[in-house]
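Course assignment 3, question 2. Fill in each field.
Student: A.L.
Task: Predict the tertiary structure for the chain below.
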Amino acid sequence: MATTEAGHHPNRVYTDHDGNLHLNGSTLYLDETATATIASGVLAGQSPNTGSLTATADGTGTGTIADDGGAIQFFSVTASNANHIVTLPTPVVGSIIILYVGSNGFELRSSAPATIAINGGSGSGVESAIAANQMAVLICTTATTWHGFEITGATLTAIEAAA
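Answer field:
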C-alpha cells in the first residue's frame, strides 16, 4: 500500500505526536458540538473580508478589488451609472467574491479581460453586466476563469458571459 504524509497511508486517520488528528483522503463529518480549524489550504485562517466598492468609469481605484484580500470577500457596491466598472482581483483558484449592488447596476471585468474569462467570455475590454438590486457570487475555478451567478430575491441565474 502506498504511503503519504510522513509515511502514513492514504484514507487513514491518525494522531501525531502533538495530539493533532489527521485525515488522509477522508471526509470529516462534524456534529453540532464539534469545532474545526482549517490549518492549510485556500481557507486557512480566513474570516470573510468585507468592505465597499464604488464602481468607476474605468474600473480602477475604488472600483478595483485588491489582490490578496482573502479566500472569501464580500463587498457592497455603489455605482453612479450602470456603465461604471468593478474589476475582479487576480485569480486565485478557490477564491469567492460576493458583490451586492443596490439601485444602480454596474459592469464587471476580470483583471485581464483578454485572457481571464467570466463565465466563458474573454476578449479585449469585455465585461459582464450586473443589474441593480442583485447579489453576484463569483468563484475562481482556474488561473484564467471566474464562474458566477446572481441572486435576486429567490431567483438564481448565471452571470452573463463577459462580452
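Instructor remarks: The chain has a mean pLDDT of 83. The chain has two domains: 1-36, 49-158.
Grade: pending
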